[in-house]
Amino acid sequence: MICKQYKQALLxxxxxxxxxxxDPKLQTHLQACSSCRSAFENERGLFASIxxxxxxxxxxxxxSSFIPTLRAQLQRESPAAQGARITNPLFWLPxxxxxxxxxxxxASQDRRVKSQPTAEQFATKRTESPVATATTEPSPSQAxxxxxxxxxxxxxxxxxIIRPDKKPGRxxxxxxxxxxxxxxxxxxxxxxxxxRRHHQLSATLLTEAAPDQTAELxxxxxxxxxxxxxxxADTQPDGQQNGLREK
Amino acid sequence: xxxxxxxxPGRTAETNLQRGATEAALRREFEDRLAECxxxxxxxxxxxxxxxxxxxxxxxxxxxxxxxxxDKLRDRSRFRAWLVRITFRLAxxxxxxxxxxxxxxxxxxxxxxxxxxxxAEDLAAANQFRSRLDHAVDELPEKQRLVLLLSAIEGxxxxxxxxxxxxxxxxxxxxxxxxxxxxxxxxx
Lengths: 247, 188
Prior knowledge:
heterodimer; A: mainly alpha; B: Arc Repressor Mutant, subunit A; 2 domains; 76% helix; 0% strand; globular
């Protein structure tokens, strides 16, 4: 049983740590009173176990990967440098140069498209040539193709919308619109024109070969002449007739 | 009246070079300090979280934050204390969020919860004492807790703890005294 008047002082002494020197009066009492001494020892033991437990958990071993991972992260992350790079005008210089180059390329392509002959011009040139005349002579699609190609040719935009089967004066078409790069605009118009012409030519040929295959077959009735049946007596020879009679 | 400013066109490049050199120097300085302060940050986080993986995460996060703001630190000699504070704060935040998550998960699993069978380890007195101590430490006020933790880490003396936290020695002593007293009362 701990003495009441020393209880608080003993607990505080234990809590203060082993290096704290006790009050002389208290020390004298501890030497004299065994119960207080044992209580004080218990208390010190409790604090020692608290300290050792805290130390062991606080000074746990550091994982071997901790510092290398940290160094790698620091290598990757350099926020100050990144921030400086963004504010630095030299950082933007390559981006500005790249944008200028891209703009220049687009502008030059546009100019090239404008200077190239339009599809209409192309088509007229082709009809003038003998080969083209031979192939395009029967083509009725010339009339429809020309407005389309002309319309395409007039577009100075970087991307043209081509409707291969669009007819003039037609409000809307169910055919898909095709986005074409500017340098392939005329080629595609030519291709569409040729395709349509071939398609129509083949349709014409098929019509000539089999004009109306879906119509009902009209087979003329077989004309069978009336049989003339003549009596045997008139037609058979006499000998035979006599023979029959004998039988 | 329009104001005109005289500039030197070649100066930008010079300034950038200077800035780059300063940054490189800062980085070298930080990396030098890292070997010394990294383990301390880890241990502070480990002391609060009691989980190695979480402590590693938190310590790394704290060090990266410190690195990002290293150039703004005026007194470089205070780096250690600064890092300790950042780590402690982050570790407390992480502990709180993990406690909340644990609480939610416990509530979610409550209908199916069964009392875990006591194992030999659970029954071991040392472990029991440790778990009680951990619980008691968690209940300490933050300031006392930090002092207790720092005094336990790497054998820091009271003077070192005072220097780390930039507080008077008497304050450290009193905080430590009250922290230990409270722990003893809870563990007695």
